[in-house]
Amino acid sequence: MQTSIQSSVSFQGVGLHSGLPARLTIRPADADHGIVFRRVDIIGKASDLPAWYEGVHQSPLCTRLENDDGVSLSTIEHIMAALMGCGIHNALIEVDGPEVPILDGSSAAFVRGILSRGIRSLNHPVKALRILRPVSVARGEAWARLTPHETLLIEFSIEFEDAAIGVQKKTLNMSNGSFVRELSNSRTFCRKADVDTMRANGLALGGTLENAVVVDGAEVLSPGGLRHADEAVRHKMLDALGDLALAGAPILGHYQGMRAGHALTNDLLHALFADPANYEWVECDAEMAQRLPGAGVHWGEIPEVA
Q1: pTM value?
Q2: Beta-carbon count within 10 A of 136 CB
């Protein structure tokens, strides 16, 4: 069955790139509503932004939605990952600024908020997007691919010169509470040299050592160090789940990413939907629904370090 959050929950913070304060509230929604963001600070223009891949205005640093009136909302990927990872199919998300609060740089706070309110089952079947044949995209040395699989399997590889990150690879089955247990508390990361460059160009204005893992060569500058030895690739998988959620439904398929970012995953969704032979919509029976991300997730699966 489709789901929604039981009651509203709010979060307060600043945007990672804008540095602007924002309040975000996740509200319950009915079946077939889907995930919709609403800019409550906007007057006189359409303020709703459906969480749909065609609404993405591609950016190398985050996932940003923009509607036909030019209203936009940035850095939606972490909350989208939390919603998908907790099995939430319907929600109205109100934000009073141009960017989703970064909080601690992971999805952990959003997951805690969702699970603290509880998940409501709606009397309506959930549909999934089943991958029927391989689809792939590439930009230079980076590539992403979707192939058929009975669950959502995410596989990711990264390579960085900094010894604190280096070469990392991980594969996880996203069924049930896997996202909450394995990925939800993994924070966004960056190199100190890149932070200096971004700030010189008016970006990453809300970034601190408390809401991102910052590395400099072999050194981790953020207090407390890493939450996982492979936290960087885990966060890339978190981002991928959030970006894949913009397909509008849970995906049954194997996602592989090599050095892939937000824009490339969005390219992949465009390529997927470009040919109806690539996929089919399936109404999930009880057995299939139990293989979807977030099915049966509970509070005890939240990592202690979150």
Answers
A1: 0.95
A2: 14
Are 22 and 100 within 8 A, CB to CB?
Answer: yes
Q: Say how far apart CA 18 and CA 74 lie, in whole Å.
A: 9
Amino acid at 222: S
Considering the four listed CATH numbers 3.40.309.10, 3.30.230.20, 3.40.50.720, 3.30.310.80, the one that applies to the domain covering 3-121 is 3.30.230.20
Annotation: CATH topology of 127-297: lpxc deacetylase, domain 1 (3.30.1700)
pLDDT band at 306 (very low <50, low <70, confident <90, very high): very low
The region of weakest confidence among 147-156, 184-193, 205-214, 256-265 is 205-214
Catalytic-labelled residue, pool 17, 33, 262, 270? 262
Collect all residues with Cβ–Cβ distance below 8 Å to 304 and sequence separation of at least 6.
none
* Catalytic (active site) residue 124: no
The token pair at 217 is: 């060569």
Residue 121 φ then ψ, to 5°: -80, 130
Handedness of CA 102, 103, 106, 112 (dihedral sign): negative
